[in-house]
Every structure is written in C-alpha cells, then in structure tokens.
Amino acid sequence: MHVFARKFLRIVICILPLVAMRQDNRLRVIFFGDSITQAGVSPTGYITKMNEILKLKGQDSNYELIGAGISGDKVYDLFLRLEADVLSKKPHVVFVYVGINDVWHKTLSGTGTDPDKYVKFYEGLIKRMKAENIRVIICTPTVIGERTDASNPQDGDLNQYSKLIRDIATRHNLQLCDLRKSFHDYLTHKNPENKEKGVLTSDRVHLTDEGNRFLAEQMLEALLQK
Amino acid sequence: MHVFARKFLRIVICILPLVAMRQDNRLRVIFFGDSITQAGVSPTGYITKMNEILKLKGQDSNYELIGAGISGDKVYDLFLRLEADVLSKKPHVVFVYVGINDVWHKTLSGTGTDPDKYVKFYEGLIKRMKAENIRVIICTPTVIGERTDASNPQDGDLNQYSKLIRDIATRHNLQLCDLRKSFHDYLTHKNPENKEKGVLTSDRVHLTDEGNRFLAEQMLEALLQK
Amino acid sequence: MHVFARKFLRIVICILPLVAMRQDNRLRVIFFGDSITQAGVSPTGYITKMNEILKLKGQDSNYELIGAGISGDKVYDLFLRLEADVLSKKPHVVFVYVGINDVWHKTLSGTGTDPDKYVKFYEGLIKRMKAENIRVIICTPTVIGERTDASNPQDGDLNQYSKLIRDIATRHNLQLCDLRKSFHDYLTHKNPENKEKGVLTSDRVHLTDEGNRFLAEQMLEALLQK
Amino acid sequence: MHVFARKFLRIVICILPLVAMRQDNRLRVIFFGDSITQAGVSPTGYITKMNEILKLKGQDSNYELIGAGISGDKVYDLFLRLEADVLSKKPHVVFVYVGINDVWHKTLSGTGTDPDKYVKFYEGLIKRMKAENIRVIICTPTVIGERTDASNPQDGDLNQYSKLIRDIATRHNLQLCDLRKSFHDYLTHKNPENKEKGVLTSDRVHLTDEGNRFLAEQMLEALLQK
C-alpha cells in the first residue's frame, strides 16, 4: 500500500469514531403533522427555516430536524403511521402538530373527527411514544382564517380542540407549544384590518413566508426551552 | 224593543267606534323566526313573558304580539312564508330573529346556509317589508352552547353571521337588536363555570325560563326604544 | 324628402309589422338552472347545440332559447330570482333543471337542501309560473359521477330527489324530462368500463361535448313533444 | 384430610384436563363492529340468535361467540381497540362488520370516513389479524334505509364502500360475507311496498327481530362454510 494511502487511512480511522460520536450527539427531532408540516421541509418551509436559524447560532450540528407531514392528515392518520414514520426513526423529540383537518373536514367533506375520538387517538399516540421515552411536545392547531375578532367560521371549534390539547398536556405532564395562542397574539398586532388571509397564511390555512418564519421561531423556542 | 235593550244598543253604538279606535291604536308586532320563537308563545315563552311585563306596566292594551316561528326554519324558509305569515297580517313592527339553523344544520344534516345566500335572502325579506312601510328590527342569532371562552364549536360561524346582520342593519338603516352580544355579556357574569348549557338554554340552543325572561326584556327594550 | 328615401320608408313601413309578427310567433323558451345551464350558452353548450339542431331543421326562426343558469344555484336560489330572470321575460316555456347542488353541497360545504324544503320551493316556483300560464317542463337531476352500478356516492340521494320531482310532475300535471333516467340508460351502453367520469361529464358533473350534445337532444325532444 | 374431600379432589384432578380439552376444542369467534353488533348480544340480538340455532343443532358446545361491538364505531375505532378487544382474547375467527357509521356520519355530524382512509385502516386491521393466524371474515355494510329502488340517500355511498370491501377480500384472499347483497335480495322480496323501515330495521339502520334472525342465518352460514 502506498504511503499516502496509508496515511489517509490512518486519518480516516482516527476521524471515523468522532464522526460517529458527533452523529450520536445530534438530537433527532421529528415534526409529525399535516400539509403545513409537509411543506415545512420545502426551501421556504418552517423546518428549513429552523435549520437556518440554528446554523446562524452555530448549533446546526447539534440537531437533526426531520419532517413527517402528510397533506390531509388527521390525528388517526398519524396514529396509523406512527411506527413507520416516527418510532422506527428513533427520535429523541417529537412535535405533534395536528388538528386543523380534524375540524376543517367536517364541512369540507363531511369527514372531520369527533372531539372524543380526537382525544382518544391523541392519547394513543402519546402512550406509544412515552413507552419509547420520547420527549413529546404537543401543539395546538393554528388557524383556519386570520380574522382576530373570533369570526372565522371554525374559530369556536379550533378553540375547543385547543382546550382538549391543553388538557392532554396537563393530564400527561407534557410540554405544550400553544401555537393557536401565539398566532392569535401575533395577528392581534399585525392584522389591524382583520383580514381573512394574507398575513401568516396565503389561503387562511397554509403559511406565507412570514408564517413559516414565525412558526419556526415558536417551534425553536419550544425545542430549546428545556 | 224593550227600553233596556234600546239603552244597551245605544251604549254599544257609542262604544263601538271607541273599541275600533282602540284596536286601531294597538301596535301589531310580529316575531318572525325559528323554534325559539315557536316556543315563544307557549305559557313560559318569551312572547308570553313580554305580554306579562306589558300588563304589569298597564300597557298591554297598546300592543298585539304575534308569534310566527316554525321549528327548523332558516332565512330562506322565512322568505317563502313571508306573505302568508307576516305581510297578510298587516303588522306595524316585525322582529326578524333567524340564523341559528342556518349555521347549525351545516354539521347537523349538511343543510346549512352559505353566508352570501344568507345575506341575499335576508335583504330580500327586508326589501319586501320596507315596501309595506313596516318597522323592521333585526336580531343577531343567540347561541349554540353557552361557554363564554369562545370554544363552542359554532361560535366563529355565529359571530360571522352576526357581523353580516350588523352590516345589513347599517346598510339598510334598520334597528338592530344585538341578542348575541346581550347573551354573551349576560353569560360572562352568570356562567362563571363556563358550562355548555343550563343557564339561558336547556340544550345549548332552546331557552330555559331564565333565558325566555332575559330575551323578553331585550326584545321589549328594543320595541320601546323608538 | 328624396324619392329613394320615401321608397325606403314605404318598404320599412310595410316590413315592420311582418318583423313584429315574426317575433311574436317565436316561442320564447327559458332554461332555468345551475352551472350546467350557465355553460349551456357557451359555444359548446347544450343550448347553443339546440339552436344548431333547430337551424339544420330550418326551425330556428320559430324559437328563442334563453339561458338563465347561475353556477352553484339550488332550488331556493331559483325561487329568489324567478321574477327577475324568468317572469319578467314573459317566456312561453320554462325548463326547470335544478337539484345537483341541493344534493352535492351536503358534503361539499354542509349547505345542501333538505328534501322536504326542496319540494316546497319547487312547488313555489311552479305555482308562480302556472299563474302566468307558462308551460313548465321539469327535469330530474343528471349525475354526480358516471358509474352505472349505483356506486357513485350521491346516487341514492339523486334517485330520491328524482322521485320527488316525478311526484311533483304527476301531482301538478306537468311535463317531465327525465334526464336522470336518460343519462343512466345512455351510460349503461356507452360506459362499459364503469368509469367515474369522461363520457358525458368531464368532472363527474359538468358536461363534455358529448354530454352537451346528448342533453341538447333530450331537451329538444321534450320541447317538441307537445 | 377427610376421605370425601380426597375423593372429590381426585375426581376434580381427573376431570380438569377434560374440561380444559373441551374448552380448547371450542372455536372462539369474535364479532367486531358497531351498535348493531353491540345489540347483537342482547336477548334478541343476532349473536344470541346464532347461539340458539347452534343449540338446536346440538353444536353450541363447539363454539364460543363473543360480541365486540361499540355504538358509533367506525373502522378506525376498531383499529384503535383491536389489541384490547380482539387480539388479547386469542380468537380463531373474527367477523369484521363495520362501515355504516363511516358513511352515515358524513351528513349526521360531519365526521364520516374518506374512502381511501377506510381502506387503509381496514387493511391495517387485516394485517394485524393475519399475523396472528386468525381466520378473518369481512362483511359489507347492510343498510341505511330499506327502500329497494336505490333511493335511500346513502345507497350510492354504501355501494361504493361495499365494492371497496369486496376488493379487499379479493386482494387479501379473505372470506366475504356479502351482507349488503343478502339484505338487498331479501328486501326485494319482503318489502314490496318499498318502505323506508320496518322490515329488517326499526329505524332504517338497527335491526328488528326479523333483521336479527336473518343476520344470524347469514353469519352462521358464513361461519360454517369452510
């Protein structure tokens, strides 16, 4: 073997464990949700933006952020793919961010989720993740419409499901990321014209660049909170 | 003819025009609405209670209160029976109190009313009543659930339809009886436990005795306001 | 006045009554419906095609075909605009072709029409048109999905509303144009693969060129039947 | 120890294995479903009736029939409680009879199940039961309304979901119990007046005594078929 090749090999052998160690040290975080999370890994999505912020802070090497969002998903869809899309990846932290479709589909297609069943499946998710010692952070659903005077058609129902999630957080002693409250507070200041869309969302639900940035900040704050 | 009979006849002849005049002077008020108004003429209903209050004030002879409520009615049902149930009775005043079923039936049976159509039919009602020089008082829908933290499932939608009605009042220069606001203010004080029902309603929608009394007061205040 | 001008004037004076007479003799036919009828007056629409067929038969001068369709309309929307869009135009014949949205919107937006209300408004339409001595032809709703094995989700409901319309035809002694039956018979032969769309419709509801042609033939046959 | 006690003990020791053997030989059959199955174990329910028929045939000692029905359940509810209510009981045979609520709740409460998700969860159920070597028999949904002319509002959707189930049976090589077909054939003969309810159901969905008897026969035939 050539002397340079030997040297290179030696270096690789020395570095390899370090690389492996570094990988072991990375905190693996999965974002488990619907279309907002599916778009989260796009170039302008909130997960991409979280990576960018971490990079600026020089902390990107400490985290591995993984998107596990599928468009149209409700809580029971997450339950069905929990093993394949979350548990099998051995995450340290999982954000659960689901509920908009559970409410929205009630009038959109007649296929929403009853509140009692929503809680049942949500607690089913938590039980299985807790059994794997995963740190679970649960999020309240953001918005269907950006009006700040409580006149978006699904506001009452989203508030109801948000309360259910806050109750779950209390009951199971879980970290809560109260996105619905954050979004409402933000819009109270930034949507003085009481517009239906165009501030944090482009279509009343899916996020604008501003929306993705704001969500990234909220998620990151929750992640680093501990 | 016997002398007493003659005397009686003479008295009757003198009184008759007075009676007629008195009847002419009675203000004919129609309450046009859904099941809440249908129950309004029952012994414990809000229209019955309005009559009782007027009697206590010695003013019952000045008003004729007529219920025209049918269970399950939405705005377009009122439009269909406007001639038969309202215009034909030559009222001086009409309270329009409709909207709960327009919202509620969306998830109850898939047969609610789109907001733009709600406005169209509402304005159709008003146009035809204004052509008859009727004083029209329009009411915002009360409640579907009595929670005061904006978490009753239809709160957002009821708020939306209430805003549509307030806009109609402004646009057509009509008196507004803002029942949704009154109910909310009342419940904020009288429902400290944030109960879903049991204060003003027995089943989240239909009124308890307390509910009928409170509604009677609101309606009467609106009627006497002018 | 110049001699030619005089001559021209004389000719015009002679022709004018003929023109007027010809106009008087044209049978004014209104098609009253939803988006399918709104598209009916487009270059490829069924009303345009009816005109083309009449032209080929040399009968186009005997008929004036008028489209009065608005996208999204249900039976009560027709009721609201009956005066403005139909009665004011003094038609001799009116085709009523409505019902798809009354069924479809139940799950699409939670704003369909209850069967009993559907009948009420339908009979309201008929009553007002009969009072004007209009020949009314009522149509059963066509399709939401083209499968022929009764497995399109709304098949049962469309069949129910079709029966309600057939009952109305019997009860009010009206001519029936049973489009649902015609479409089903046609598809039984022409859709051997049991496809959901692509034969008479492009999207399960709105018509292809073949659909418009077939509908034109059905409508024309009904019109000429008398 | 007293001589009689000893004797008794000896007898018990001899009998015990026989009892155990007898239990081992019984075929454990679970009926997994919704309110119809929940009522199936009532004194007049279909599972009770199956036991009665087996008794008459002198075969009741060969079967253990267990009801696992919960009112309001849809396919994903079964998925959630599969382990607790089915797998943990080590059944040899499982009847899956679910789908009515998946369709019905679309307009009843806006919380039905999308067809693609219905299939996903259904196949999820099957996969887990097959892994336990359970003989799975899958049933098409019976009826929502007993009219035989395809005009019950949900007929199209029930037919659609029935086809999905038949496809699943083919794809997974499973025994099919085509209840929807059986009910339709039965009603074609026994419901000549095309009544909405009152033959096999008391309320368009839940079974009369006749309905329970007919269902018991269908289920038993499927069970004994192998």
Keywords:
homotetramer, 226 residues, alpha/beta, Rossmann fold, 5-stranded parallel beta sheet, 10 helices, 12% strand, globular
Can you describe this structure in just a few lines?
The structure is a homotetramer of 226-residue chains. Chain A has a single domain (27-223), classed as 3-Layer(aba) Sandwich (Rossmann fold), CATH 3.40.50.
Total discrete domains of chain A: 1
**CATH fold node name of chain A:** Rossmann fold
Distance between the termini of chain A: 51 Å
Mean pLDDT over all positions of chain A: 93
Task: Give me the secondary-structure category of chain A.
Answer: alpha/beta
Shape of chain A: globular
H-E order of chain A = HEHHEHHEHHEHEHH
Question: What's the topology here?
Answer:
Four copies of one chain form a homotetramer.
Chain A: H1 3-25, E1 27-33, H2 35-38, H3 46-56, E2 63-69, H4 75-80, H5 82-85, E3 93-97, H6 100-108, H7 115-131, E4 135-139, H8 155-172, E5 175-177, H9 179-190, H10 209-224
Written overview of the protein:
- Four copies of one chain form a homotetramer.
- The model of chain A is unreliable at 17-22 (pLDDT under 50).
- In chain A, strand 4 (135-139), helix 8 and strand 5 form a beta-alpha-beta unit.
- Chain A has helices at 3-25, 35-38, 46-56, 75-80, 82-85, 100-108, 115-131, 155-172, 179-190, 209-224, and strands spanning 27-33, 63-69, 93-97, 135-139, 175-177.
- In chain A, helix 3 packs across helix 10 and helix 7 (115-131) packs parallel to helix 8.
- In chain A, strands 2-1-3-4-5 form a five-stranded parallel sheet, with helices on both faces.
- Chain A is an alpha/beta fold and 226 residues long.
- The first copy, chain A, has ten helices and five strands; from the N terminus they run αβααβααβααβαβαα.
- Chain A has one domain (27-223): SGNH hydrolase (Rossmann fold, 3-Layer(aba) Sandwich).
- Chains in contact: A-B, A-C, A-D, B-C, B-D, C-D.
- The interface between A and B is medium-sized, with 18 and 18 residues.
